[in-house]
Task: structure prediction
Amino acid sequence: MNYRVPRPVPQVILDDVRGAQKMLSGVSRVTAMEGSRYLSALTGSPVHLKCENLQRTGSFKLRGAYVRIAGLRPEQRAAGVVAASAGNHAQGVALASSLLGVRSTVFMPVGAPLPKVAATEEYGAEVRLHGQVVDETLAAAQEYADRTGAVFIHPFDHRDIIAGQGTVGLEILEQCPEVRTILVGIGGGGLAAGVAVAVKALRPDVKVIGVQAAGAAAYPPSLRAGHPVSIDHPTTMADGIKVGRPGDVPFAIIGELLDDVRTVSEDALSSALLLCLERAKLVVEPAGCSPVAALLSEPERYGGGPVVAVLSGGNIDPLLLQRILQFGMAAAGRYLSLRLRVSDRPGALAGLLGVLTTVDANVLDISHVRTDPRLGLTEVEVELHLETKGPEHCTQVARTLHGAGYKVIG
Result:
């Protein structure tokens, strides 16, 4: 399904993106383009990964932040800049400001991951923790800008930001000139809008498709309405695209130029993260995995020629990574949790583990409960967490336990 929204000429044009590319020479990296044999076999088309997770600061955000700050007038630079972000934009603004000799203040939520806070400070910004959610943090940053005269650097709703992010599109066309489809994650829309401006100006035959997390998908209803609309309480593990309302500037471009917007589930995001780690040997955050999640969810849609999936970022808290990997293994049928009751006698637990050994199930964790009032006098409940080889192996484990006389209760 194509979305088409009648709009004036987009406020960002190809010359803006080309100018941004010159400005970023020697500042941002031309990130690698890696092929994926697994995804290519799955879709029936060559699939390439544009590795913005390997960009300086770990995401594409440096591109737009540098172009925006570099374009400030001398008196604006003297006043400093301020931004609000839970992570990637914060680091992009901090490094861009340091490279340009501009003082930066970054507001981050109180619960922001400590590695992201530390990285932002190391790039040279003064970090102020405020608010429990990003909306409160944004309000605090805007109040600071109004009070001090510092220039507020919006994460996506500005033409310079979009022009900077659009340099990703120019690099894709240079690295993969035969591309037929580009998949890019959408939060507020700055990256997708920039890529669409660059690609559609040079190759209007190339499809540019946006991907949103299903629990934070503000673009589909906005495009149907013909104007940005807000969604209440966006929810997703992909905090990089967890935005409740499209930006006005990127929305106008996306409504005019994007071919489609797809949504993906949390299961698909976690499975995509696991695939990037295992198959591509790349650490990618959930938002950066959204294009891969789209390929995994509907591979038959992308069989019409070479596909490029933009891995937009790789900044992920190690504790969150651990939880998502477990979630991803469960979604892929490689992590099985079982509860069953066995006789409370010596050797009963050893016998159960022996049965699991026969089907090559790896025990990750085990708990042994005797005090549940629902248990019989001679029963204990055992909870097992197993690593398996996939859905068929999970079925085999359950059947083998049943055949050995064990009753699985959960």
Summary: Residues 1-7 have pLDDT under 50 and may be disordered.
